[in-house]
């Protein structure tokens, strides 16, 4: 009798959300660039449940401003092409067995730092603000 093997199946819901700015950026691209962006993002989402480490190797964190009080940012960039980068967050929610990719911008490589910093500041301003209040109270 042959031994039976059970394959672990990872059942995770993958949600992809996009902001108005991302949609505007996408609409401003040519047809082939738009398809490339959609394909790269879908590829990451499709691979994530079973090849999470591979997907994270494709993503890159840029340095953030100080003041996250020990929190780690979930804000990343994804190289679409030599000229284009997508800015997104990846939020793993183990309670609901889901991963949420939130797409913030798709920008030219030349505009990446400025767009990334702007998104980071708006996302993390509350954490940074609480950090400065704590420091003032001490």
User: Mind telling me the CATH superfamily name?
Assistant: RelE-like
- Tally of helical segments: 4
**Gap between N and C termini:** 70 Å
Biggest β-sheet description: 5 strands, mixed
CATH topology (level 3) name: YaeB-like fold
Query: Into which percentage range does the β-strand content fall?
Result: 15-25%
SSE string, helices as H and strands as E = EHHHEEEEH
- Strands ordered across the widest β-sheet: 1-5-4-3-2
Radius of gyration from the CA trace?
A: 18 Å
CATH architecture: 2-Layer Sandwich
Provide keyphrases for this structure.
138 residues; alpha+beta; YaeB-like fold; disordered C terminus
Structure description:
It is built from 4 helices and 5 strands, in the order βαααββββα. Strand 4 (84-93) and strand 5 form a beta hairpin. By secondary structure, the protein is of the alpha+beta class. It is 42% helix and 25% strand. A 5-stranded mixed sheet has the order 1-5-4-3-2, with helices on both faces. It has a single domain, classed as RelE-like (YaeB-like fold).
